[in-house]
Please model this.
Amino acid sequence: MTKSRKIAAPLTILLLCAVAWLGARAWGNNSAMTDAAPPERPAAADVESVDIEPRQMARIEPGAKIEEGPPEGWSHLVLHAVPRVAEGDVEKVSALVNRLVSKFHLTILADVAPTDGPAKRFRLDRVAIGLALPIEKIETVISPATQEKLGAKLGFVDRNALSESEGSLGGVKQVARTSTMLVFDAPSIMRLDNKNRSVTQRHAVLASPTTGKLATLVWIVDQNEDGSPKLVDDTAHLLPENCEDDRQIFVDAAQFSFGIPSKQAFALVKLPDGDDIPIDANWRTLAAGVFKDSTDVVKLEQALRAAIGWNKEVTRR
Model:
């Protein structure tokens, strides 16, 4: 192993934490997860039935440009997150690591499209994730294979960090799908109860079948002592449109060994800012658990629509 490789290794650990989605296994039904991603543009009939098979999230095609909203071919910018070291033992972090923390920006896009037929209705066509960085002052989604061609021209350490971070996105899994909703889980390290703890961020992306409007909710799932999932609290966050997240990172010096950080050394301070949505009794169990059949998914979608005021709309065609 070269000296450069030794330097890069702990930096990539930090970078994965800064993105906040680690290449770790989420809880629940992961043993059955498949690496097969859904088609990027499924026909309406392909997603009409409920899908509860966990699978990898689709990736944003490299070259997509984020300029005050979604790029061409997408209807919604769900999240664009720029991480930075902000709290805790920040003096432990070198200038180089500080730069790398903010290098790559987690991006989530969604596309809501009209369905076929005489009635004007909409479906959630696709949701995808990726990493972006500024190229000629324009946020551009890149991958290790395309970064040079797209003009990023990263050095060795940055390329290594990008490869590790891109690989970590494989831990993000779609866990439920209907024609108008996609639920995905992202393993994460967050600062909770004065500790850096491994948890799961669960995201529900919903499309209105009548208006085409999009809503995204995020909440945190933890584990009981027996390994079963539980909610951290009874609140979800409803993200604003085109959510720009100042992704603050907490540094815990207790998680350093001989100056080298473990993956638990860096944690997200909080979820993205958004409106608090109470997780009431109607969907508390569904919010944390593994989806055992399609009825669970339909009930959750109905409860989420009610929680955000869409209860008068038809959940599924």
In short: Residues 1-48 have pLDDT under 50 and may be disordered.
